[in-house]
Amino acid sequence: MKVVLTGFRGTGKTSVGLILADRLGLPFYDTDAMIERRAGMPIPEIFRQHGEAHFRALEREVVAALRTAEGVIGTGGGAVCDPANVADLRRHGRVFLLTAPPGVIVERIAGSDRPGLTDLAPEEEVRTLLLRRKEAYLGAADACIDTGRRTPGEVADMIVREQGYGNVTAREDAKTRRPERDALLERFGLSGLGAMIDRNPGLMVCAIAGNPCAHSRSPLLYNRLFQHFGMNYHYTRFEWPDAGTIVRLATLLPLKGLSVTIPFKTDVMRHLDEIDEHATAIGAVNTIVRCGGRMYGHNTDWLGVQIPLAHRRGGRAAVLGAGGAAAAAVYALRTLDMDVTVLARAPGAARGLAERFDCRWGGLEEFKGGDADVVVHATPVGMEPDTRSLLAADDLERGTTVFDLVYTPPETPLIRAAREAGCETIPGTEMFVHQATEQFRLITGLAVTPELVREMLA
Question: Which parts of the sequence bind shikimate (predicted)?
Answer without folding.
Answer: 216-218, 261, 286, 301, 407, 435
